[in-house]
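so my prof wants the structure for this chain in the tokens format not the other one, which i didnt know existed until like an hour ago. anyway here's the sequence
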Amino acid sequence: MNPVPTRDELRAHLIRTMIAGGVATPRQNNLLHYRRMAAGHPYYQFGLELKPSWTERTVLEMMVERCGVEPDPRHLYGDDTIDPEITLDTLEAMGERIGRAARRRENVILATGHPSTLAPLYQSVARALQEAGCRLLTPAAGWTYEIETSYGGAELRRIVHAEPGVAMLESCGPTGDGRTQHTHDARPMEEMLRELANTASADSPEAKPDFWPDLAIADHGWAGAAGQAGIDTVGFADCNDPALFAGAAEGKIDVVVPLDDGIASRHYTPLTAYILDRAGLSAPA
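here's what i got, hopefully its the right format
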């Protein structure tokens, strides 16, 4: 079992690995995303129906408060920052909510748009929840849809569930190679929830609580769609992904942990141990 770091040890780790503190996310990319989210661009809404009152200025102010980015609006280029204290506080809040799910043996749905980096974290949390008696929901396995590519073509994506139950996308079809894929898209989570709702309706209206998620642990559009559906949602977001933080500001997302979500997966192991310890769980052997 991995040792649980103290708060001070984890803070040092976050800064050393650039998961928080000074991060490699370009400021100009952050500001572009803030501007597009404020303009209502669907790709940057992550499946959330956000208030139309957001402006680039108020998004930046919100991201200073909830993520710890550089507050100076004149800082236009270079790297940006994530406040490690906010990361630590929200990791603790996430752990506490996961702990309540474990004690109540809730239905939990887990999903990531960053399978290459965050999947092991999600899988460890999923295994711990499963051992605690939670039901891991894995609807819509194998569902496919078409996306437009940056080069003007189209590719198929398919929902798969990594053991013991973490949803993600993989490429498929004639040009697909079966690799897991990064995504911001909310459509896969919307489809999973649609399947659960349709199954409930086919049985009886009263059946829905038996397998509707009590908690979603997710990121990107997977988290946004869950929060928009009224599900308790905790998740992770980078400083160039303002929508989930805006969702938290509007009360649709319960906890958003700010971090660089593109670091080598092994560097998230101490965060996993910290979350599980806060939840009163241990990582399965």
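also thought this was worth mentioning. The longest helix spans residues 84-104.
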